Amino acid sequence: MTLTSFDFFVFFAASILCYYIFPEKYRWTVLLTFSAVFFVLSSSPLTGLYLIGCILSTHFCSQMIRKQRLSDPKRAKLIFFFGICINLVMLIILKDNGFFLLHWNAIAAQLPLKAVSHELGWAVPLGISFYTLQSIGMLTDTYRGSVEPEQNLFKTALFIAFYPQLTSGPIARYGKMRDSLFEGHRFSWTNLCHGLQRMLWGLFKKLVISARLALIVDGIYESPELYKGFYLWIAACLFMLQLYTDFSGCMDIIIGAAETYGIHLPENFRTPFFSRTVQEYWQRWHITLGAFMRDYVFYPILRSRLWLKMESGLRGKFGKKVARQIPVFAALLIVWLLTGFWHGGAYKFILGQGLWFWLCIVIGQAGESTWKKLRKIFKVDQGSFSWHLFQSLRTFVLAAIGNIFFRAGSLKSAFRIILSALTEASNPWVFFDNFYTKFGLTEKDIFLTVIALLVLLLVSCFQRSSSVREKIDRQNIVFRWTVYFLLLFSVIIFGKYGPDYNPADFIYRGF
Amino acid sequence: MSKDEIYLRLNNVFREVFDDDSLTINEGMTSADVEDWDSLTHIMLITAVEREFGLRFDMKTVLTMENIGEMVSVIDEMTR
């Protein structure tokens, strides 16, 4: 069952009804029941054993950490690492075993060691990449003393497996979620309406925009050797838009669904294409993943004894500024390698979603004094619209290059695409020769997509200053309902539901 | 150590980390008030502050300190 399927909306409607029928004190149990049903309906039920394993280990390790934290800190630390290891081992073995087996077999071929089959072929539990990080966050916050662990096992289960966010996040923090998640919320017409509006907006992004862009992107990436130059740049840029509308559309549906219960999940996107640097981009794109990596990986590494010794050692040789920067860049490298690996156990992800962005950030930071001098020489007005536009376009292109690796079939294919895009000439009239028709799109589809993207741009501009829904709420009733009906009928009439439609095709659902 | 002395020393740390000799901190100042104060420079700032005062903040404090006034209060408490 996927978030854009009819089954899901029936399921969701039933959950809302049950939630508000039940007494307030027990409403969280309704969410837990529906989360369990959602898991069974959406994936192989046997893989639920891993989810249960994660819940049990997280819950009981948290309890033991709490008891031992002050009386026996060493034991508490041991239990903490044990809990982390159980979750990480499950994630790596189930999701990324192919990556390690590939390397093992390569080593085994050179040595008298036995090679194993390329992949274990085990079913990967739904949402394992997301709920594992949430569990690790909960364990870490308990260990740090930031939160008191949940005493009720079933409430822990709900936090980890809450169905709207199970498949694709956002990655929530226990301390911030618990009151909202477990408190039985009174029915609020505002919450219901706002939640449904948000879900509708997500469906618009996914079914009207993303599904159409996917046709061109998939068509070119299926056989990239047939295309060169501009075509590949178009595919790269369209994939950025496709990925954004798909993933953020998914987030809108998830956050909107939670909102109907009165539960507020953290935001995962904040108009990322307005970002002026790659660093800012990752503070606006997949926000909860970036925050997780910052708080649970980056900061602890930087504050470790090894890193502090590194800084002290470098001070004498290179001065204070460089001594501060090098350990930061080294810690960032680990963070970005992990980020890339989290996206997928393959070098194309490690490079494209990891190393590439690390390089962009380091060049930006390390070269700051040079960039400052250049801006002075060229008399750049940093407050001007044209400069902001340049920065945003530059960031978009850099992110698009990184995402070529994400989308390409392999590392080799990604390099080939980038090389061709940079060096091979192609038809400069590509924007005027109706090339899109070979991908199953008509002129009407293109016109519709352009209009939809302009609507998205307009909404994004409004979102920079305040909530669009609240702005609409303040308008008169005719205007409001015109907007709602236009959006609804856009999804119903213009949503791409054709024979190629596959509700499973949320890109990030694969994680 | 008085709070005034803490502010003076902290001010020097801020000027060094942000490479801005005109920067002057105040109690209510947050990351929103200083250009380039983001998650990267925040952790550089924290380690510089720890080095200056010979302290070590726990992770909970590092992540939850909201403004300069709070930072000064924490330093004051830890250096007594």
Q: Which secondary structure elements does this structure contain, and how are they paired or packed?
A:
The complex is a heterodimer of chains A (511) and B (80).
Chain A (H helix, E strand, L loop, with lengths): L5 H16 L5 H16 L5 H21 L4 H38 L17 H17 L8 H9 L1 H4 L7 H9 L6 H34 L7 H31 L17 H7 L2 H16 L2 H39 L3 H20 L1 H10 L7 H23 L3 H13 L19 H21 L4 H6 L3 H18 L17
Helix pairs in contact in A: 1-2, 2-6, 3-4, 3-5, 3-6, 4-5, 9-10, 9-18, 9-20, 10-16, 10-17, 12-13, 13-14, 14-16, 16-17
Chain B lengths: L2 H15 L21 H15 L5 H6 L3 H11 L2
Helix pairs in contact in B: 1-2, 1-4
Fill in the keyword field for this structure:
heterodimer, A: 511 residues, mainly alpha, 20 helices, 0% strand, globular, B: 80 residues
Q: What does this molecule look like?
A:
The complex is a heterodimer of chains A (511) and B (80). Chain A is mainly α. Chain A has 20 helices and no strands. The mean pLDDT of chain A is 89. Chain B is mostly helical. Chain B is built from four helices and no strands. The longest helix of chain B is centred in the first third of the chain and has 15 residues. The mean pLDDT of chain B is 86. At the A-B interface, helix 12 and helix 13 of A face helix 2 and helix 3 of B.
* Total strands of chain B: 0
Number of strands of chain A: 0
Tally of alpha and pi helices of chain A: 20
Overall radius of gyration of chain B: 11 Å
Estimated share of beta-strand residues of chain B: under 5%
**Biggest interface, chains and residue tallies:** A-B, 21 and 17 residues
Question: What radius of gyration of chain A results from the CA coordinates?
Answer: 24 Å
The parts of chain B where pLDDT drops under 50 for at least 5 residues are none
Shape field of chain A: globular
Determine the structural class of chain B based on helices, strands and strand pairing.
mainly alpha
Major pleated sheet of chain A: none
Spans of chain A of 5+ residues with little confidence (pLDDT < 50)? none
Terminal residue distance of chain B: 8 Å
Percentage of residues assigned to helices of chain B: 55-70%
How many helices of chain B? The count is 4
- Write down the overall geometry of chain B: globular
